[in-house]
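Researcher: Last one for today. Full complex below.
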Amino acid sequence: MTLNSNGIFKEKRRVSSRVEEVPPSGIRRFFDLASEMKGVISLGVGEPDFVTPWNIREACVHSLEQGYTMYTPNSGLPELREEIAKYFSKRFNLDYDPNCEVLVTVGASEAIDLALRALVEPGDEVLIPEPCFVSYKPCTIFAGGTPVTLSTTAQSGFKIKPEDIITKITPKTKILLLSYPCNPTGASYSYQELLELAGVVEKYDLLVISDEIYSELTYDGFKHYSFASLPNMKERTIVHNGFSKAFAMTGWRIGFAAGNENIISAMTKIHQYSIMCAPIMGQKAAVEALRNGLPAMNEMVAEYEKRKRLIVSGLRDMGLSCIDPQGAFYVFPSIKETGLTSEEFAEMLLREEKVAVVPGTAFGECGEGHVRCSYAASTGNIIEALNRMRRLLGRLNPKVMSL
Amino acid sequence: MIDQARMEILELLEKGKSLSPKHIAMMLGKEEAEVRKIIKELKEEKIILKHKTIIDWEKAGRETVEAVIDVRVSPQRDVGFDVVASKIYRFPEVKSVYLMSGTYDLSVVVEGKNMKDVALFVAEKLATIENVLSTTTHFRLKKYKEDGIFFTGENEDNRMVVSP
Ligand SMILES: Cc1ncc(COP(=O)(O)O)c(C=O)c1O
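Model: Here's the assembly. Have a good evening.
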């Protein structure tokens, strides 16, 4: 029997077991801890530190002045879907019909949830490489599916290989939920690596939910290829992307999905009944982002790239091994040297040095031994956070300081 | 030809108030010694002139006034406006001087303790310089943005401290 904290639901179980069995996000506890403290430097933030570029904000203000305060078509403003289709074509050489193969959603979050709900039959297995974004497993469970973890490690650069998929295949395997560049590891796949994965996907007739929300944030010349752009993959891939990361537009809640007409129309059906449409203000701003926001985006990417180099060499300098990420705005150093668990280390760092990071285990069990540091923070804060981390490591292990 | 490394270093120095050569080297993927050498050269070539801190003096409690003065000048043979400009910019009261296109010639920024202070400086020092034809003084009333920095508190970080 389940008790609600205020004791109202004593008699009957009200909340479905499917929902109740999903544990709350591991990030929540650190949020609560960090929020109570003063003077915290946060490397724990999963969103850009930039404010949305002014021309994009201004486009929204203008649309409000013009009286755009109504519903839009379920699948999104036609001009936005047009711009999204053009973007896919220009950036990834992918042609989608804006009328039936593109859906505008409330963030990529909604799009991922829709795809799972539209595709998963009860008991279907969804392959999820970990560490990964926190929503994949819960959303799979909410949709009635069974998440199957593909664990990755630092040795493999936090990437899956075809064998990892093959060993987990069962008759119920239906979907591979891939995300690259990855939150929390920053890992991404080269064209060759993607081709190999595509081979297995085709062989076992899988569908791919590809979360490419960080596709624009890649560094040091690394090029992002959309999974749908690989040979024979377009029909079996639903690409997810959005404005949150590339255009610093997290609060606007605008994302999108593109793929096969039947799947998009199934997703649209759920979206139509549960959400109706994404907010028009955000959609108007998103149109401006795609039309005129690319220079501002490029400036932000150049800035992230410098910070990434700073934080990677800073962490390595203090003796923490850390893979040089290909994209996103996270590094995922190993803290195994300290002998502490991820949770212990993150909590100690927060309490003793007032630096917030997220324990790797919040993104899957195989994240143990690592912490996620976000470099969506000012250079000054990154430098100060690195100093504080070094100080803590020095106390934990005097040898580290002499490195 | 524009030297990429020099440009990148200059941009970082202009933006990041207290970046050490070591941190710049980390950010650009270069050796610290190389960055030090380039910065030294940039200083020797007088490309890097000075480091400046942007201060909201009003918030700090110091009351000063600032005026922008449009100055019309009759240019001189061979030297144009340069000699008059140099006579103006040598006064310590003068913060900056620009040669302008349009209806006047020099734009002069003057700082003083109060309006009277500035007005006296204009009347006694500026207007009396040879070849200065006229002056128009505009007092600055409020500062919204300077060198890319908002003076209105909008630079704050309003994000949640930890998020997925
Ligand atoms: C991998 C990944 N996918 C999706 C999202 C959610 O993005 P949106 O704001 O578009 O819902 C995030 C946000 O942190 C993310 O990291």
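The domain at 60-141 of chain B is CATH 3.30.70.920 (Alpha-Beta Plaits). The two ends of chain B are 45 Å apart (CA to CA).
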